[in-house]
Every structure is written in structure tokens, then in C-alpha cells.
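Quick one: co-fold with magnesium ion.
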Amino acid sequence: MPEAFREGEMIFRGIPVSAGVCRGKILVVGKTKRPILRRTLQEGQCAEEVTRLEKALVETRHQLQDVQRKVSEAMGAKEGSIFDAHLLVLEDRTLIDEVLRAIQEEKVNSEFAFHSVAERYAATLAAIEDDYLRERATDMRDVTSRVLGNLLGEQVEVNLGNLKEPCIMISHDLTPSNTAQLDKRNVLGFATEVGSKTSHTAIMARSLRIPAVVGLKEISSKLENGQYALLDGFNGLVILNPSEQTLFQYGEIVSHQDTLQQKLRDVLDKPAVTLDGHRVLLSCNIEQAADAQEVRASGAEGVGLFRTEYLFLNRERPPGEEQQYLAYRQAAAALKPLPLVIRTLDLGGDKLLSHLQMPAEMNPFLGWRAIRLCLQETDIFREQLRAILRASAEGNVKMMYPMISGLRELEQANALVEECKTQLRDQKIPFDEQMEIGAMIETPSAVMVAASLAKRLRFFSIGTNDLIQYTLAVDRMNEKIAHLYEPTHPAIVHLIKATVDAGHKHNISVSVCGEMASDPILAPLLLGLGVDELSAAPPLVAPLKFLIRHLKLSEAKELAEFALSCESATEILARCQALARQIAPGLFEEK
Ligand code: PEP
Ligand code: MG
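Sure, here it is.
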């Protein structure tokens, strides 16, 4: 990292979530959290403000009509008519007259007047115990934000899938569905105000190999479109107006990384075996069927986690059984005979759908999510189960359930699988009768009943991203408490050990597919605790393999023994860092 920064530069510090360095023009997208400031108008300025408002209202009308037309064409007139309510807000004479009065009598700027009046209307509607009126409040806020965007000259909507030129994207937040849409040719990197290392947006960035920094408070209100910046995804920095010297230093970092990548390429087709002969299974996490193509090239021996929910995002309707079957079959065929572990739908939390009524929740990660949603929306679940079973005839397919919190959920899910199998047999549709079923262990309750689960399953896969959030009660999305999200917390170490012990006692394998598995600093601890398999995003497999080939299992076991007897997360982390840096210093040279 450059030691000092030069004059003219402005530095923003956040959380590095996806490695790499990029530089280029900035594009600020989405709703900025710009405060709506009150300005007192001078004599004679009122007419000008009224004209600005009228222009913004006309512009908003055109934008809404455009969206309405597109939605009607794609989904039908009924869906398009949703925007009638938005258009009506623009025609609400009582509202507009009140805004005009505020401009003329109180002598305030049009955005302040519009925001205050519309927000008062919306708050009144939202407070009434009536679902219809509450929805009107949402419409009103939606329209308000468009009008304000037009008044402030902000870009209301950018087509993320089709950008005009290469840029570094800056925004308050990017949802996983936004990230999945990104035009990879033109997004050099991205930076957001919220988020953390294990938010799904960060996970996607790593899979897409896009350098990214999150948790950059208020950055979107401080930067303007078209400014020039450098984004450092290793150290979590965005540097506005980087000087020649800074650019030179970063040039050296990039060339050091290129050399490291060359070294890593050498291990790709070698086995993941420790110096004392212990074989480790390394797999990939993928988000799309097409990603299965790059699994072998990444040096992995299969897919340990296929996050199928991405098939459901960014579309008008859920994919049916046939469409899913084709996607799963494509991935299974590309990998054959390597295994493909398909995780059933893990919607909810930060992955929301527009086509399924998903209510806003106070605690989405504790709410209607994953297996809970599937056990209620059984039509959607059955379609997926049939699609997975059918794909099992085409390759080495395994299936696992997310977020199992106890035996009842497992039994309910298994009962639905049995129903689907019976149907397929009756219809003479082939599937693998022996297809292995496993579960993700990502709640503390699942660990506590792991022995009961293990008797009924063929494998466990520990989802440390959620296990840590649920055990330590630390929201994995919240950058304000990111420092409390500690993978080496003694509670986590003991929970992993308990899962491994329960799994092995019942002769089933235990893998880790959370982000902890892809961190070369933490991987030795997991192996020392007895984990059989590590599953990571494709670009992160090579560094893991490099590290494993420089490690002795005996060292990993010693580390795990220390961790199991240690009371401090910081000390455990320090020991992990010391071991990793000692055996593979090249991986960790200062960036
Ligand atoms: C996890 O929780 O560790 C996991 C792999 O699942 P996801 O990140 O998709 O919630
Ligand atoms: Mg999870």
C-alpha cells in the first residue's frame, strides 16, 4: 500500500471485498442519500423555481410512461397498469397546488417544497391501517424520488447491463440482483457505502473478478460523475485524483500481482495435497450454470455450492421446472464425472425477488428465507426438486438444503423429495436413485442437533457466512459492526469442531463453503479441525491450493488444538496469520 498520499488526492477508506486495482471514470448510480436542503428564494426567483418544478414533472411523466410501456410489452398490460397509480400522483392537483403555494408563499426551493409536501402525504397514508392506502404511500415515495432526481439532475436509473463506457461504479448499495446484471466489460470496479465481506454483492464481485470496496460511508454524495479515481480492492481504498506517483506505485503492485498469478498458474493441475500427504478436496462455489465451464481451469475438483437463487433473480417470472432442468443439466454435463452440489433455493435475506410477493421484514436474515420459504411455497420448491432430480441422471449431482435449523425441516424437505421421486418413477422419467442429499450447517441449532441430522444425510456443508452471523448475532450486511464479525471467535471454532465430529461419527463428509474456506489465512485452521473439503469462488482456488501444498497437516492440527484451548479471537487469528505467512510468504507480501 502506498505509504503517503499526495496533494490533490482525496482518500476514502472502506472494507476490501474483492482483490484487484482499477482506475477510471466514476459513475455514481442509484439513489444518493443527498439531503434535501432548504434554500430561501430571493425576490423574483419564484417563477424560475416553478418552471424547474414543471420541467421535472414533465420529465418524470415521460420516464414513467417509458417504464410502463416496457413493462407492458414484456409482461402484459396488467403489470404495466401498476404505473397508472404512479402517473396519478403526478396529476394530483391538491398535491401540486400545495407545492406551488409553498414555493410562492414560503419562498423555498422546489425540491424542498416537493419533498416536504409529498412526504407529509405519504406519511399520512402509511399510517392508515389499510393495505391499499399503504401501497399508495409507497407509490408516492417512489414518484417523489424520481421527481427529486430530476430536479437535482441525478441519474435516476442507469441500465447496469449496458453501460456506455468503462467506469468505476459508486453507489449507496448494490443488491445481488443489481450485481448479477453488471455489464462486466464496462464495470472496472465498484464501491458502495454499505455492505461487508460476506454480503452476497461482495461474494458476486469476487466470482466476477471485479475489484470492489464496500462500507465507504457517504462516498456517493461526495463524488461526481466523470471524476477520475483509483480503486484498490486489496486495501479497501478509493483515491480520487490519484497523482502520478500514486499511479506509479500501484503499477508496481499490479505487476507484483501478475508475477504471483504466474506462480499460482503452476499449481493449477497439481493435486491439493499437504507436505505430509493429506489429500484435501477443493471445490468451487458458482452462481450460474455457465460458471461450471471454468471449474476445471480454476484447479478445483467439482462444485461444492451452486447458489441456484441467481437463476431466479432479474426475471419477470420464476424459471419453471424445464428451464431449471436445462441449467442444472448443463452444469452437470460440463462437470461430469466431477460432483455438482446444487443448493436448493436460498432466497430471502439480501436476495429478494420482484415476482414473488416478498414483504419487507424487520429482520430479513431471521425471516422468510431459504428452506422456510420453500416449505411454504411448495409449488416452487417441487419444481426445483424435480428439476434437480432429473439433472441427476446426467452427471454426478448432489443436492443440499440451506439454513436447516432442526430435524423437522429436514424431514419435511425429504418428504417432498420422496413425493417428487414417486412422481418421476410413475412418469418413467429417469433420475439417480442414489443421489446424495446433504444440508448446510449454518445455524447454531443445526450444530446442536448435528448428530440427528447426520443420521439422515450423506454430507454436511458448513455455511460459515451465516453460522457466524447467527452465532455472534452480527448482521453480515452491516458495515458498522463488521469488526464484530469474527470467524476466529472461540464459539465458531468449537461449533465447527462439533459439526465435524458429529459428521465423522456418522461417516459423512464435512465441507465448508462459506467465505472462511476461501481465506488462505483461515483454511489451515479448518483443515486442522478435520474439515474434508473447502469450496471457494473459482479465482480463489489457486491460492488455497498453493497454501495447502506448503502446509503439513500436523501443523494445521497443532493450530486447531491451540484454537480449541484459546479464549481470544484475536490470538487465534494471530496464530493463523503467523502459520500462513511462515509457510507461504509469497501469498501475503504487503500490497
Ligand atoms: C454461507 O452462509 O456460508 C453460505 C455459503 O451461504 P450464503 O453465503 O449463500 O448464505
Ligand atoms: Mg448461507
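If it helps, The longest strand covers residues 21-29.
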